[in-house]
Amino acid sequence: MMNLMNNNNMDTIDNFLIDGQPVVTLDNDLFLKKDGKTFIDQIEDYFKQIGGIAHCQFGDIILDRKGAQNDKAHGMSRVKAISFAAIVPTLEKGVVILPLGQYHTNDKKQETGMIAAPILIAGERYICVVVVICNKKEKRLYVHESFLFKKIHEALASSLVHDGNAMSPELRGNIANVLNNYLTSKQ
Questions:
Q1: What per-residue string of b and e applies to 54-89 under the rule 16 or more CB within 10 Å gives b?
Q2: Which helix (H) or strand (E) holds 30?
Q3: Helical H runs in 20-77?
Q4: Which pTM was predicted?
Q5: Largest Cα span, the chain
Q6: Interatomic CA distance for residues 18 and 111, integer angstroms
Q7: Residue 14 host element (H or E)
Q8: pLDDT by residue (tens digit) across 109-164?
Q9: Which residues have C-beta within 8 Å of that of residue 65, sequence separation ≥ 6?
Q10: At what angle do helices 12-19 and 174-185 cross, to 10 degrees?
Q11: Cβ atoms < 10 Å from Cβ of 14
């Protein structure tokens, strides 16, 4: 398989995810445990401090406590906790890897889409993916994940991706599959 870092045949969108400048650089001390504040309280305060809205290709996205709770319910790692601070830059400067489309949750029709961007956390490169959910009333944060770039690169470069499914445990799940499918389809 070709070396993705030096692939000149990829278009500019793909170069952005593979070797573009990170949209944000974060320290690893964000959203640490605080007395008297739950993690969700901290994220809600952060969202309020930055205005509670992100402007992206899907429109204005609501960032609030409900979104933070949904996101946390899908699992939480230290990297994911830190990368809550990457959600706005990812939405505003990232690329669409999954256009808004129909998705069924609890028998409700909703549109869901994904936007991705490279980020830097404590000197390590990641790709942050933000999932947006849209119903008739509003568009809001649904969930986000951040994937260590070297794991994505290793999986793609060593042919660990088979039929759009990543074999590496760090790259399993629906969001990882969409990102992998997007990157492999552009080679």
A1: bebebeebbbeeebbeebbeeeeeebbbbbbbbbbb
A2: none
A3: 39-49, 65-73
A4: 0.85
A5: 52
A6: 27
A7: helix 12-19
A8: 788 999 999 999 999 999 999 999 998 889 999 999 999 988 887 777 765 445 44
A9: 40, 43, 44, 47
A10: 130
A11: 19
